[in-house]
Amino acid sequence: MNHNKKPSILMIFAVLAIFLPGCASEAVSPLEENLAKNPASQNSLNLQIREDVVSPSSDYSIQTKDAFAVWWDPAFNQTEQDAPAVLDLLIGVKTDVMENLGFGQLYSERDGFFFNVYVHNPEEDKFPDFLGNGVGFDGGGIAYLGMPVGAHTDSTNVMHEGFHVFQSSTEYLVVEEEDGIDAVWIIEASAEWYQASRNSNNPRAFIVAGAVYANPHFALWHLPESGRPDDPDDNDWLYGVRQYGMSVLLYYLTNVKSVDRKIIAGVYTTNATVSAQEYIYDKVGGDTLRSMFADWAVETAVGFDYLSEEQKFILFDELNFFAKPEEINAHSLVIQDSEANGTFCPPPALTPRSWAYSSFQINNTSAAQYTFNIRGDQNGSEGAASHFEARVAIQNQAGQIRYQDVTMNNAVNGSITFSANADDEEIYLVVSSVPENFGGNQHFGYAVDITRN
Hints:
Blueprint: H1 9-16, E1 28-29, H2 31-37, E2 49-50, E3 61-65, E4 68-72, H3 79-100, H4 107-110, E5 115-120, E6 134-137, E7 143-148, H5 155-167, H6 185-198, H7 210-214, H8 236-240, H9 242-245, H10 247-256, H11 261-269, H12 276-284, H13 286-301, H14 309-322, E8 333-336, E9 342-344, E10 356-363, E11 368-376, E12 388-396, E13 401-405, E14 407-408, E15 413-420, E16 424-433, E17 446-452
Parallel strand pairs: 4-5, 5-7, 8-10
Antiparallel strand pairs: 1-2, 3-4, 6-7, 9-17, 10-16, 11-15, 11-17, 12-13, 12-16, 14-15
Helix pairs in contact: 3-5, 5-6, 6-10, 11-12
């Protein structure tokens, strides 16, 4: 995670100017001293060690390779054996993002310095306590990475934080604008997407995705501080990790639907001047993205049909540990098939917002024919034009799921008629709200006429 807000890029340039190679500065430690202490260090790029949040470097053990320098307190020298693996993981991130995702050189390397990585024992060693786990910036705007012992050997964490390292060497300033709160979600979602894409078979790669499943009516970019005044925010895990959990959408787009990974990275590599959601919409294509989002929504609503059984078990175990049953709003309506005749609407608090969805679940007990007729509002609660896509999922007693698209006659109205067999026990109607609207919290209402014969 990013612990400190990125400063103005001009500030970074201004600070770096006083540390350029060849300038006399007490902030640069002699590299020879580091090499003498750490024979495993390498310096093929002819970089220097920069002191930023700690000094002097002679008080610490340092191992270097490629563009990175791993620091640790010599009183806790067990880190020495782990440093080569940390360096290799970060170098692997560097190689991948530069060769395959379009990222450029790290600012630190460009200016002749290693990127500092601090492996620390919180409250025990002599590193400052604020380091935490994530990329931060020192008082002069210089980026660094801190990782507590334990987190530094977790490949999912190192890849997540490694992606943040390269984010810190771009100029995506939309998140810094006064009204840029709706662009902030991409910082953590893309870093988590990166590690999940690289660790797609890891059982814990999607551990926080349950936060998305629990509140699918929130806008894609929802943060506790960006929602409505009456939105619940008293569960730090459930609402606080949702931006990380949105990585499952990005993963679905690139790893299930084959959207080019460079499009997700392009938010940063092109220094986009719009929010991530609008950038991705433009690059993928509005109608294509709407269809993909609707597919993702229905497969998520039935319980992450695109993930492994072990991944699903772990993420739901995490959700059920941190959230109370009454906090989980995965389905805005759950009814028996005997009740499935009439007109139904999602409750006001669960009506979907922009780039969100809501789900109706019908518990089916016998063979029947169903008709769903969707009637959406023309506009959202603040006037934006509505746009809906819908899918049906039918799950039988063996757990097998089949999907059907709802035919949309226009942006707000659609219908479907289908047959359920006697062994079909759960039917889902998932309505996605996918308007050409990329900020705020307006909701988009609709009604569904359900007929069961």
